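Loading example: each entry is read as two labelled lines plus one structure line.
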Amino acid sequence: MVMYVIKVSLYGVIRLQAGISHFESTASTLSELKEKIPNVSRKEADDLIVLVNGTAVKKKYKFKDGDEVVFMSPAGGG
Amino acid sequence: MATNYGGYMGKVLRINLSTKEVSEYPFSDEERKLYIGGKTMAAKILSDHLTGNEKAFSEDNLLVITTGPMTGSGAPSSSRFNISTLSPLTGYITSSNCGGNFGYYLKKAGLDALVISGKCENPTWIEIQNDTVLFHEADDLWGLKTSETQEKLDEKLTMKNGRVRKNGKICIGPAGENQVLYASIISNERVSGRGGTGAVMGWMKLKAVCASGNKEVKVIEKEKMVKHTQKWFKYLRKHPLTGNQLPKMGTAGLVSAMQMKSILSTKNYQYGQYDKFEDISGEKLAEEYNIVNKGCLTCPIRCARTVEVNGKQVKGPELETLVLLGSGILNNDLKSILRWNYELDELGMDTISCANTLSYAMEANEKGLWDNGLVFSEIDDISKVFEDIAYARGIGAELALGSKRLAEKYGGKEFAINAKGMELAAYEPRKTVGLGLGYAVSNRGGCHLNGGYLVILEGLGLSIDPTTPRGKADLTMMFQDLMEMISATGQCLFTSYAFFPSPLMNHPNSWYTKLVNKILPYCGGVVRFINKFPEIAFFHLPVFHHTKAFELVTGMKMPFGNYLRAGERGYNLERIVNARFGVDESKDSLPKRLTDVPQDPNKPETKVPLETMKKVYYKARGWDEKGLPTKKTIERLKLDGDVRDKG
């Protein structure tokens, strides 16, 4: 599997939990990347909203060169 | 009039400022049962007085300040009070809901509501202590900003032992005194913001009202209520929205989510995304500026932020202010928004209407319609512009009129972003079209909450298809009625967010959440059936603690279906009164930018299909094609007595 350098952004309360707003990580699949969010368990990562290049993707998404990923906690009510 | 119900103090005071006459306003138990409290009780009082010929700035208008039966009951987030009046901004009823502690202390004074009319000869403030009402000269307060006014009032309420008498207060700032059409009323740091209630108070030359007393709210089933309240507090603290997101990030936490959903109003609603959104986000506010989160009395949610401005700890901005004074005018300087938020509260102006009027003016200038010197992203002089608005100086005197009137003068109606004359909230509705419908039909004008807040289903909470009109009309009606009733009881609308079961919020990627998102738009028929026959819900819902609490406090029977019906009655009552002032189908509109121009030029569905949804909505509500309640609907809701020909 080809590994790519992925730019990751975190939003919502998960960002406060992770203690980091952006980071770069290497991964070939979304599933793999979910393991690499600081201070966030895999179970918690599974409940985050995920966008790749601004679009929702399937769980088994395989990365392409230049992909940018957003992990976001569900948010509502204002 | 004394009451047999719990939750009520059984007394409404009428205060005539012209004659200084104080009398009891009759409000019976029969009326309490039908009109509950808060905005609905106020609508009933306004309905009994307004014929359709009155003006906001006249002795015929009333400023009605109401609590609900849950106010001060100890239930979660139950310190709310409501201010309703004929709005100078819209010309229709506005109802503006506020936290803080004034509602609580009004009830401590033994009162459910104040009905204020007339006009003082000179600036006046009113002191209410238990049954005593005193009128004081307010020459020394007139002209002061809102925090200084409240400090001075506390000095005046200092007792012989040096302590300040415990009190709740409301006051206006310079904007109210100068009748800025969107002037607000301030209570501590909380704001009754929308529709220009502060301008009406200013016209009355009433600077402030302070209430205090030692009366207690009677709770019918006290022990059971204590247990129920404990359970409810626990539930709210565990819920992902009311127990996690709102306490940790406040409403500001939605900025990023709105960006991702493309509903972040940007450059006067031209776009739904802002490339510098991170600079004005709730995350940045939490990480760099928030000192502590605060809550109103008995509130476990504690959504308010505290930030530092000019060396002073003050209330931080809500989502609306962040967005409309941020992306709305292409400003990514968060520090400036914190300062402006404070300044606008000090001057006593609604941040939403003010910001949207400003962004309209910037666009009008950019398009060459109005040479006013205001330019998107140029923010150096904005504080001065706000001062000029509050004191009605120069260009400020024009901006004080709001975007609708300015568009009538200078042109650009299609980008004067208001409904019924009141500026819209921060959610760009072309990718949350159900909320677009809500904005248009809302009784008080462009309000997300009075509009049913369907965005909570369309992206912020659940994720149903945000651009389909399918099912949206019926869901809008249900959410409007539900929120109408929560507001009428004196509770905060944020408690309603826990209505959505936690698993749906916690697990957005689960099969069941996806299923709910998929099928909900197709449930319009089911929702309509419940809306039409709410009595079938003759029970309490485990995720909706309000109904049981209401019964325990008041002793009134209030299963979920009755709760919805009471909300529906309130919603229709405001509509009936507004109809006397000319509201009909033609007034349920949005600017063409939102209905005719797709947000994404490649996706024609990204605009609000208003006319399609309105037809379904009117049918669901039991209104005719003119958008007015039919005779059958009026009879069903027992509102026959409120229908009258324009006098």
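The longest strand of chain A covers residues 4-11.
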